[in-house]
Specification:
It comes from Vibrio quintilis. With 184 residues, the protein is mainly beta. It contains 1 helix and 8 strands; from the N terminus they run H-E-E-E-E-E-E-E-E. The chain has one domain: Porin (Beta Barrel), CATH 2.40.160. 11% of the residues lie in helices and 72% in strands. Strand 7 and strand 8 form a beta hairpin. The longest helix is centred in the N-terminal third of the chain and has 21 residues. The radius of gyration is 21 Å and the shape is elongated. The two termini are 38 Å apart.
Length: 184
């Protein structure tokens, strides 16, 4: 009798987790606009407007907890730099890419609306160029923090609006992002 109860419970748990796993995957894309601060910029003007783009895969581990793997890219185009041998400051272009792993959590508000937040680490590459010459090419580690609101349009499709803070090698980025997510 005990064996039958244990076997039945195991089958129920396996069936429940299989059903949860079927809806536990998502892919998404986000675009954003915000401010970029470069720590090594010369002078006081180290902030620039930046765009960002992200692609990510998300896996639900529990109803309110998941893990996210993301790719981030973006740029800033008027970073102040001092040219070697010159007393003048010139604008340079900063490009970055980052790969991140984050823990994600959700808070359901009401039907089709929920809040999300995530915290994770990233590995990144930052390049600073001026007139086709590469001034900086640094790799490093940083962190990513995201928080926002998500609206489920249909069963697999949702849109989100949120804030993102991406800290990289000598670069801090704060953006407002708009995204689309597809669950499968």
């Amino acid at each position: 009798m005990k064996k039958n109860v244990i076997l039945s419970m195991m089958l129920i748990v396996m069936a429940t987790s299989a059903q949860t796993n079927a809806q536990g995957n998502a892919i998404g894309a986000e675009v954003g606009l915000g401010s970029l601060k470069y720590d090594k910029a010369s002078g006081d003007d180290s902030t620039d407007v930046s765009w960002t783009g992200s692609l990510y895969y998300e896996r639900s581990l529990m109803p309110y907890l998941g893990i996210s793997f993301g790719l981030h890219t973006g740029d800033g185009s008027s970073i102040k730099t001092s040219t070697i041998g010159s007393a003048t400051k010139e604008d340079a272009k900063l490009d970055y890419t980052a790969a991140s792993v984050s823990a994600v959590t959700y808070l359901n508000l009401f039907q089709n609306h929920r809040l999300y937040g995530s915290l994770g680490l990233n590995y990144n590459n930052v390049e600073l160029t001026h007139d086709s010459s590469k001034l900086v090419d640094d790799d490093g580690f940083g962190y990513v923090i995201r928080a926002g609101w998500e609206y489920q349009i249909s069963e697999p499709l949702s849109v989100n609006l949120g804030l993102q803070y991406l800290s990289m090698e000598d670069v801090d980025l704060t953006t407002t992002n708009f995204g689309v997510k597809m669950r499968f």
